[in-house]
Amino acid sequence: MTSLRTKVLALGLGLAALAQHQVAFAQAGAQACIAQADVSDAVVYAMPILTKAVQTKCEGTLSSSGFMARKGTAFVAPYLKQQPAAWPGALRMLSQFAGTDKDGAEMMAMFGSLPAETVRPLFDAIIEQKVAEEIKVADCGKIERGV
């Protein structure tokens, strides 16, 4: 039986691997380096938001005896504790990544005029909504097994 720590590590590494592709794409488009620490912060910061998006989108389709129902709260707890400290790095990465096209640059200019703590709940809502839009209900079971 795989331990929770191993599952968390595997998921984190998987997300980091996925993020590396996005970072490379953003770097190519923006001609700017995204610090590895900011990528790590973004993964830590986004984990609770991603989990919530899955739980919201998959409500009613996930098993009551599945991982999310039994251990979802414990899984996300360490990330929630680290979220405030990870926010500045996550914001830097999101700012660079989102600013790679005209619409993103305009949005980041608008957000840039606001205090970081004011922007935070807006980013959370946008990220959760965009992730939930990408999840197909038919894939909810696969996502839960992957976690």
Task: Give a verbal description of the structure.
- By secondary structure, the protein is an all-alpha fold.
- It has one domain.
- It is 80% helix and 0% strand.
- The protein has six helices and no strands.
- α2 crosses α3.
- It is globular and about 45 Å long.
- The model has no long low-confidence stretch (mean pLDDT 80).
Number of domains: 1
Number of strands: 0
Determine the fraction of residues in helical runs and give it as a percent range.
Answer: over 70%
Mind telling me the C-alpha Rg? 16 Å
Describe the main β-sheet briefly: none
Show unreliable segments. Answer: none
SSE topology string: HHHHHH
Net shape: globular
**Number of discrete helical segments:** 6
Mean pLDDT score: 80
Structural class: mainly alpha
Distance between the termini: 14 Å
Briefly characterize the structure.
This protein has one domain. Helices cover 80% and strands 0% of the residues.
Topology:
Blueprint: H1 4-30, H2 36-57, H3 67-98, H4 102-112, H5 116-134, H6 140-146
What keyword list fits this structure?
147 residues, mainly alpha
